[in-house]
User: Which sequence fits this backbone?
């Protein structure tokens, strides 16, 4: 068997021993390596295939890790990981105790900055460049690689604005493939499209040049000689520089090039044909589709309803409403802060905005939730997808902080549905005329009820329910973790002693329900799929303190540490939230 060039490369030092003429062959092998692993292990595919040549060129010409390379988001960093001492463990990518799917400082000296959310690379690289100047390291290079969807974010604009008036030795590379997870949107995207077809714009009326950058491009991101030549030139140019590179997401796998949305993260697929391997279809519906189908149904009857998402049209299933009501559905790009205040503005004019943002991404718009929505009592309906543990994407994507960071805000209602019917009914209730904002948080993945599309019913705000009576212990839960609790009670040797209450609302708490619970049960266990510090359990402790109850209260949830990546099943087992471990815990206490 012919030995491959990649077989002899473990790090960039090995890479630099090759001649430039060998690099196209290496690019071919690197693509094949990524495809081979991701086909069976799953992960993010298209973005990394698109930057293979750029990745090789950067590590070939720059003295990484002495020269500092920052990748934005990290979806595009698989080739980088393989070339930087992780080739032999790349098959563990995104698995429990394996390497992370994103750059991570604790994992490698080549990962100069941890990334998971977009648009941070320019700020981070500029900070590094300023630090180098202060230390007198004027020859050190600092490179940020950012996509055309990410650069449209407010944070990226802020960094560009600062960098343009600095003397930082900073190179920003725009990886322009016209798509993030969904196709890129907005005026900047339209401008970049024009630049590709009208080269005069690269010279005249250039937005980046106007910000004091040395702009070059656009160039073909798959033409290795051209990339090497331009990067070599830019190494000697002082100050802020900007290289516009045109790439094809999914390059090298025909199916990935043809269907770039699906092949962003396609699951398992045939590495030769690219055909996705069909999973056994679940009998149950994804929560995101429960949302998507329900809001469409509501919007058909209520023309005041509008849908808003920051670049997660497919992931939130708001695409269903976009197809039917394009004028009432808004993908604002990677701009969470704007999405929230846009919704607030709409609410002032009598519209009913459903603002769908992944739980982990709403963290980026915290100020807007407080000042622009809650302070003004504007009835924005926040739909927080991917709440709780999300699995293989790991610490940057787990939606475990929302209960804690939202419940301290006045004027906001917080609801976590136990199942699909509850989600459907709270969406219906929310659009009937609430006088304040509501946050509805629900998990990734499927529910547990087949016939969830039932006739709507109103949910009484602040009302919890008893799911099971018991004699000795009261378990209080919030959200879909109730399913694990129900299974745990069935597994318990003392099931008759265990009562189960679904509080449903974190805010307002159902104090009418809580008083008799505290009077009847000596031991109370709270269980949530959010952080235990400041979350649902903390609210129950505060209730007990306020009313001078001395019950034995146990709090279970996400421990006070960042949870790494792994399957949801593995992660829940690790932290004691799977059914069997909960059953064991119930038996100890009863």
Assistant:
């Amino acid at each position: 068997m012919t030995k491959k060039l990649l077989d002899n490369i473990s790090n960039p030092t090995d890479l630099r021993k090759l001649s430039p003429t060998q690099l196209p062959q290496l690019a071919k092998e690197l693509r094949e390596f990524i495809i081979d692993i991701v086909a069976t292990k799953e992960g993010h595919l298209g973005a990394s295939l698109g930057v293979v040549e750029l990745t090789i060129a950067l590590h070939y010409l720059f003295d990484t890790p002495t020269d500092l390379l920052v990748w934005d988001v990290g979806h595009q960093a698989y080739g980088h990981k393989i070339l930087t001492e992780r080739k032999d463990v790349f098959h563990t990518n995104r698995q429990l105790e394996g390497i992370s799917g994103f750059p991570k400082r604790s994992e490698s000296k080549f990962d100069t900055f941890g990334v998971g959310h977009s648009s941070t690379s320019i700020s981070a690289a500029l900070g590094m460049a300023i630090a180098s100047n202060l230390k007198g390291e004027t020859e050190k290079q600092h490179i940020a690689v950012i996509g055309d969807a990410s650069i449209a974010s407010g944070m990226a604009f802020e960094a560009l604005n600062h960098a343009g008036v600095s003397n930082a030795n900073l190179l920003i590379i725009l990886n322009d493939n016209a798509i993030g997870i969904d196709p890129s949107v907005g005026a900047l995207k339209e401008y970049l499209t024009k630049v590709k077809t009208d080269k005069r714009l690269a010279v005249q009326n250039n937005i980046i040049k106007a910000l004091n950058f040395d702009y070059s491009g656009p160039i073909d991101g798959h033409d290795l000689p051209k990339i090497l030549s331009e990067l070599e030139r830019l190494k000697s140019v002082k100050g802020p520089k900007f290289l516009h590179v045109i790439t094809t997401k999914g390059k090298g796998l025909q199916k990935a090039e043809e269907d770039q949305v699906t092949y962003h993260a396609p699951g398992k697929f045939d590495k030769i044909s690219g055909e996705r391997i069909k999973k056994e279809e679940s009998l149950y519906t994804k929560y995101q589709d429960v949302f998507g189908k329900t809001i469409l149904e509501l919007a058909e009857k209520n023309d005041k309803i509008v849908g808003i998402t920051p670049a997660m049209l497919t992931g939130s299933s708001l695409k269903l409403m976009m197809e039917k009501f394009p004028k009432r559905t808004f993908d604002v790009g990677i701009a969470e802060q704007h999405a929230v205040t846009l919704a607030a503005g709409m609410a002032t004019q009598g519209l009913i905005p459903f603002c769908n943002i992944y739980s982990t991404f709403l963290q980026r718009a915290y100020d807007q939730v407080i000042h622009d929505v809650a302070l003004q009592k504007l009835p924005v309906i926040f739909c927080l997808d991917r709440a709780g543990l999300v699995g293989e994407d790991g610490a940057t994507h787990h939606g475990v902080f929302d209960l804690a960071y939202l419940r301290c805000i006045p004027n906001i209602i917080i609801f976590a549905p136990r199942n699909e019917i509850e989600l459907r009914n709270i969406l219906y209730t929310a659009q009937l005329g609430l006088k304040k904002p509501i946050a509805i948080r629900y998990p990734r993945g499927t529910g547990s009820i087949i016939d969830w599309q039932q006739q709507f019913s109103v949910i009484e705000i602040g009302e919890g329910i008893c799911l099971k009576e018991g004699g000795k212990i009261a378990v209080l839960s919030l959200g879909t973790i109730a399913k694990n609790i129900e299974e745990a009670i069935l597994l318990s040797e003392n099931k008759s002693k265990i009562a189960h209450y679904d509080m449903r609302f974190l805010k307002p708490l159902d104090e009418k329900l809580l008083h008799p619970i505290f009077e009847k049960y000596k031991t109370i266990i709270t269980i949530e799929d959010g952080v235990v510090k400041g979350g649902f359990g903390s609210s129950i402790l505060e209730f007990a303190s306020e009313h001078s109850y001395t019950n034995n209260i146990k709090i279970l949830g996400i421990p006070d540490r960042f949870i790494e990546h792994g399957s949801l099943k593995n992660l829940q087992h690790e932290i004691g939230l799977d059914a069997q471990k909960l059953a064991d815990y119930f038996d100890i206490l009863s």
